[in-house]
Amino acid sequence: MHHRTVFYISDGTAITAETLGHSLLTQFEDLQLRQRRVPFVDTVEKAEKVVAEVAAAAAADGQAPIVFNTIVNEELSAIIHGCNGKVLDLFGIFLKPLEQALGMRHTPSKGKAHSMHDAVNYEHRIAATNYALSHDDGVRTSFSEAEVILVGVSRSGKTPTCLYMALNFGVRAANYPLTDDDLEDTRLPEFLRKYRNKLYGLTIDPERLMQIRENRRPGSKYASLAQCRFEVAAAEAMLQREKVPMINATHASIEEIASRILNDLGIQKQLF
Amino acid sequence: MHHRTVFYISDGTAITAETLGHSLLTQFEDLQLRQRRVPFVDTVEKAEKVVAEVAAAAAADGQAPIVFNTIVNEELSAIIHGCNGKVLDLFGIFLKPLEQALGMRHTPSKGKAHSMHDAVNYEHRIAATNYALSHDDGVRTSFSEAEVILVGVSRSGKTPTCLYMALNFGVRAANYPLTDDDLEDTRLPEFLRKYRNKLYGLTIDPERLMQIRENRRPGSKYASLAQCRFEVAAAEAMLQREKVPMINATHASIEEIASRILNDLGIQKQLF
């Protein structure tokens, strides 16, 4: 086991640094990491404080920390590069090849990636989040403004998926729970039929569904394996028959589910 | 204006590729970009289809597209590198220096960054999202399990911020709206006082608040500038007096607000 401290350092939110670092570190096995996010490093004092923290971690670990740096300001970035960790610098490594590719020089400006440089986009995602909240769990059955309508049995993961698509992609995502009443029919509930090109099914293994429901309502019929099996089988059969695309959420992350849905429905919204 | 097409290509969700690309491209001004996310490129056929799309974009733009590639598989990645765009490769550029820093070789495995390789984390963020939903807008006033409690006037942005912290960081975030009744007092509502170390204030410019409320309830007293000014001034005075840290959401993104809050409260949760 390798004991290491990893720093994610930025003059903005540090979200890019951490995303980059996580992706790269997944390619290494048996790492035992202590991770430290340090956002908003925008003064000499803060940069020097981080350098001292890196030194302390190096001493404690007996190994050089890994430092993912996305500070744009050259003076502050130089201070970070003076630390006794191994510094991997997003802008330092990528800007030159990108300048060549674009045939132009860059204009340094800090922390733009996750800042509100685009107020229209900001309002768009807040509106999408409000939409998801007010069109959750079949609360409203007019889905004419929805871009995506998730259908699935209760507790299959529809709400978090809708909220994720709204907050991170600005997508207006509604959801509708298939109830026992709906599942007695072999066809889609009638009012959903007119939205066919926006529908996406979320399914889940009955055993997993049982666990989730058991946490909510222990010992209930709702949480019984028999009921979960019946609902999942009926919902999957209905969605297959109606040719609604479907993803099994049991072994997928929210990001995978959301990306898959947007890709399959051809929705090209920008990630925030 | 530079007209360019940018591709974000991955064998996973493409979230890392897009995050990286956005950050880098913010450093260039006056770019006019058409952005195309291509996730789940995990077969030779799909890789060849992307290469054809890049060629079509190159022909349409009269300029080479920029291609951010995070495909791990070497065979598929080589196909992407054969396209006629300018390929910037996350793993190609960063893995070598990271191997040197860690003193070990990497073990290629695709799409791990946003996949469910950690089911415990997954359940944690779903639980956090359910927590945020059930502790929204002062619905429950027992906040003993909260890690963060946002306080602020109605429509200052508390709900989206809580949901973002829950979904993206797995933080249990509750929120409480300061009402007229609360604001008649100069002190914090009594039941909030015992949670003092978890409290964070969200404020907003009265003019902006008026716009938001006007969209909700046009012509109401609630949406009037006088009412917005009164509430914001009273809330800010209360929070300052009670030494509750505070951020103005008017010109900040959700990411900035969330990162600032977690940083100020010393909450070191991993970004998903």
Commentary on this structure:
Two copies of one chain form a homodimer. Chain A is of the alpha/beta class and 272 residues long. The first copy, chain A, has two domains: 2-102, Rossmann fold, CATH 3.40.50; 119-264, P-loop containing nucleotide triphosphate hydrolases (Rossmann fold, 3-Layer(aba) Sandwich), CATH 3.40.50.300. Chain A is built from eleven helices and eight strands. In chain A, the strands form two sheets. A four-stranded parallel sheet of chain A has the order 2-1-3-4, with helices on both faces. In chain A, strand 5, helix 6 and strand 6 (173-177) form a beta-alpha-beta unit. In chain A, helix 6 packs across helix 11. The model of chain A has no long low-confidence stretch (mean pLDDT 92). Chains A and B meet through helix 1, strand 2, helix 4, helix 5 and helix 6 of A and helix 1, strand 2, helix 4, helix 5 and helix 6 of B.
Blueprint (SSEs and pairs):
The structure is a homodimer of 272-residue chains.
Chain A (H helix, E strand, L loop, with lengths): L1 E8 L5 H11 L5 E8 L5 H18 L4 E4 L4 H8 L4 E4 H13 L16 H16 L13 E5 L5 H12 L3 E5 L2 H5 L5 H4 L5 E5 L2 H11 L8 H17 L4 E3 L5 H11 L8
Parallel strand pairs in A: 1-2, 1-3, 3-4, 5-6, 5-7, 7-8
What are its keywords?
homodimer; 272 residues; alpha/beta; Rossmann fold; 2 domains; four-stranded parallel beta sheet; elongated
Short description:
The structure is a homodimer of 272-residue chains. With 272 residues, the first copy, chain A, is α/β, with parallel strands linked by helices.
Quick one: CATH superfamily of the largest domain in chain A?
P-loop containing nucleotide triphosphate hydrolases
Helix content of chain A: 40-55%
Beta strand count of chain A: 8
Report the C-alpha radius of gyration of chain A, rounded: 24 Å
- Strand content range of chain A: 15-25%
Work out the helix count of chain A.
Answer: 11
Shape of chain A: elongated
Main sheet: strand order of chain A: 2-1-3-4
CATH fold name of the largest domain in chain A: Rossmann fold
Q: State the CATH class of the largest domain in chain A.
A: Alpha Beta
Q: Which runs of chain A of at least 5 residues are low in confidence (pLDDT < 50)?
A: none
Largest inter-chain interface?
A-B, 79 and 79 residues
